[in-house]
User: Which sequence fits this backbone?
């Protein structure tokens, strides 16, 4: 008997992980005889529990898959919680989170039954995400050298769900046993995916205007963020810096208290950025944000994308001049 709980932010990655797990559990068996699947809004966890405790027929094991279990209330999960207290040894249970927050009684029952909890969400940090891409490539039978790995991870950005399709294409094109370089991967990459907000603000704070504009375009196009959404991200970034203005802040603890956040890397990073920019540049940045806000709301007859581009270029140039 095995119990699995899979969750993840990207539905395509989550679905792929569930399919891979079920395929592994089935092995050389007959999927049609071994697997019972529950999906949609109509099924109940009572039906899932009944299927799991029904002895397998013509096969050694039964695999029960239930998707979207997060939608069930504490009362509705009771039949499955009861089953998990004494599960059938010949049944494997695959639960897929989604549709809401999991009832605590169910997560506790899964843990008590020795269940395995798997998160399919890619890491948010760049270095960890690069290693995640490498692991996914190895699992797909695709060998990448350092240049190809760096290029693919950079291209994906936040759109990690596109990775499986690219890896499938690379494997079918080149086969296995060949280590691919960046030039081998490049022809199969379309428009670059969106990027997390901190990549844009890091490029701006570093005074790298070219990179900042490239990241802005990825956020607005592939990431589908409206310029007003980008403005809100930048406003939050500079509001934190403005909270430090005029204060005798000497360490990250004091900086965190001034910004209303917990001490740690974000506070330490913001303090370093404020010190690099200085009071006058932070004030100038806030004025630029205010003007861009007016322009986006019709003060000037400019396309929203152009307003965002001008703002990002000016903020980046401002930071670059200070550094």
Assistant:
């Amino acid at each position: 008997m095995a119990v699995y709980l899979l969750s993840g932010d990207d539905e395509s990655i989550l679905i792929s992980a569930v399919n891979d797990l079920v395929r592994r559990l089935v092995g050389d068996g007959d999927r049609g005889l071994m697997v019972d699947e529950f999906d949609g809004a109509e099924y109940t966890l009572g039906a899932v529990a009944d299927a799991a405790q029904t002895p397998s027929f013509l096969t050694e094991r039964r695999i029960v898959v239930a998707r979207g279990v997060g939608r069930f209330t504490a009362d509705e999960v009771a039949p499955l919680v009861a089953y998990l207290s004494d599960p059938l040894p010949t049944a494997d249970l695959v639960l897929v989170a989604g549709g809401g927050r999991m009832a605590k009684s169910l997560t506790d029952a899964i843990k008590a039954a020795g269940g395995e909890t798997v998160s399919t969400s890619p890491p948010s940090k760049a270095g960890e995400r690069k290693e995640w891409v490498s692991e996914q490539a190895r699992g797909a039978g695709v060998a990448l050298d350092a240049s190809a790995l760096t290029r693919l991870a950079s291209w994906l950005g936040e759109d990690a769900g596109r990775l499986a399709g690219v890896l499938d294409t690379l494997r079918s094109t080149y086969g296995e046993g060949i280590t691919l370089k960046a030039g081998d991967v490049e022809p199969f990459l379309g428009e670059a995916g969106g990027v997390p907000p901190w990549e844009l603000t890091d490029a701006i704070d570093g005074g790298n205007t070219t990179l900042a504009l490239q990241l802005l375009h990825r956020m607005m196009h592939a990431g589908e963020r409206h310029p007003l959404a980008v403005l809100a991200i930048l406003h939050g970034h500079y509001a934190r810096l403005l909270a430090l203005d005029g204060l005798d802040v000497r360490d990250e603890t004091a900086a965190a208290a001034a910004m209303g956040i917990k001490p740690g890397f974000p506070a330490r990073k913001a303090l370093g950025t404020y010190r690099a920019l200085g009071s006058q540049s932070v004030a100038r940045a806030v004025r630029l944000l205010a003007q861009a806000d007016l322009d986006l709301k019709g003060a000037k007859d400019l396309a929203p994308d152009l307003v965002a581009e001008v703002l990002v270029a000016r903020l980046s140039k401002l930071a670059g001049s200070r550094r």
Strands lie at 2-7, 35-38, 62-67, 91-96, 116-119, 143-144, 179-180. The longest helix spans residues 279-299. The radius of gyration is 25 Å. The longest strand covers residues 2-7.
